[in-house]
Specification:
By secondary structure, the protein is an alpha+beta fold. Helix content is 26%, strand content 29%. The chain starts with a helix and ends with a strand.
Length: 331
């Protein structure tokens, strides 16, 4: 979300803007422990946090985390703009929690103070979960200056990504999404013994379609489709159909791909060509999505890519494998 949208009709009180941000779905839970209904924020990091995590943030010092109350404190325009430019807890966590190692557990609402302190210090002060190129090694006497420099670097990445937008008519586009439809596995039978499957992708008002593969329940497409990504993007919707010559095509399942983890990470990191191969984000498998396994976002040969394995929904069987590639407009 850009600050410009708020500047056009900015109310006299900055608290109203902060409350509007707080009402966004990803900001209704503490960025660090997931406790509901946070009432505090770190203005320079750009996250909303609960009272328990607020105490830990204060102990880090304002050079690392400047804590303000959503309702009680006065906010400067710069502090409000920083919160807007980061875009919320999900965007910030895509950076600060990009590399949580195995064995490190994110705290919950009832986690002890000691465990909460350990995680938050690792996340923000020690920067242990960041991509390696953003980590800052410093002596104590240098820490304030370097932390400030790091914060500016993070904010600059959000600002540069927000500024590289292209518009067409009333729709603003922020980049291109290349979708390589790899293959299907164990697809449903819709004809006598087999099916003639093809895949349809929808993003906003755009539609793209693969070729039809005749009589195959395990088709291999390896076909690339291109879609423009609007500023206000939703999920990538995927449907599989069986092609029929003399009647309406039968649906063979559907699924949705959450683009937020990939696009948020890619735009925050900026020019992927500047970095070596590394993981920069992750879309986690859960009961409310179609993922077969966790899907990581990676920089590979200077490109942001994500492999996605989906179990088709509302159908008796079937899986689809995709490879996504994010392409900024200035590439």
């Amino acid at each position: 979300m850009s600050s410009r949208a708020y500047e056009l009709g900015r109310p006299a009180s900055g608290k109203r803007i902060i409350k509007d941000l707080l009402n966004q779905s990803d900001n209704r839970f503490c960025a660090d422990c997931g406790a509901p209904d946070p009432k505090w924020a770190s203005a320079n990091i750009g996250v909303f946090i609960c009272l328990k995590c607020c105490g830990v943030h204060r102990s880090l010092g304002t050079h690392i985390s400047k804590v303000l109350s959503v309702t009680l404190d006065d906010w400067s325009d710069d502090e409000i703009d920083s919160m807007i430019e980061v875009g919320g807890n999900s965007s910030a966590n895509a950076i600060y929690e990009a590399f949580i190692p195995e064995g490190v557990k994110k705290p919950g609402p009832d986690t002890s103070h000691e465990e909460r302190m350990r995680f938050i210090r690792s996340k923000y002060e020690l920067q242990e979960f960041l991509k390696p190129s953003l980590r800052i090694a410093s002596r104590p006497s240098e820490r304030s200056t370097l932390q400030s420099s790091f914060s500016r670097k993070i904010m600059d990445s959000f600002r540069s990504s927000n500024s590289s937008k292209n518009s067409e008519g009333m729709v603003e586009f922020i980049g291109l999404l290349k979708v390589k439809v790899m293959k299907g596995t164990n697809l449903a039978i819709r004809d006598m013994l087999s099916s003639d499957p093809y895949v349809v992708l929808n993003l906003g008002h755009q539609t793209a379609q693969t070729n039809v593969i005749k009589s195959n329940l395990n088709p291999v497409w390896n076909q690339e489709l291109m879609l423009s990504v609007p500023q206000e993007f939703g999920p990538l919707k995927l449907r599989v159909f069986d092609h029929d010559t003399f009647s309406a095509d039968d649906i063979m399942g559907e699924a949705e791909v959450d683009l937020q983890p990939m696009i948020t990470s890619a735009m925050a990191f900026g020019d992927a060509g500047m970095f070596g191969d590394m993981q920069i984000g992750k879309w986690l498998k859960s009961h409310d999505n179609a993922l077969i396994k966790d899907s990581t976002v990676n920089i590979v040969d200077g490109k942001v890519k994500q492999e996605v394995s989906l179990k088709l929904q509302n159908v008796e069987s079937g899986e689809i494998e995709l490879e996504l590639e994010w392409m900024p407009l200035d590439q």
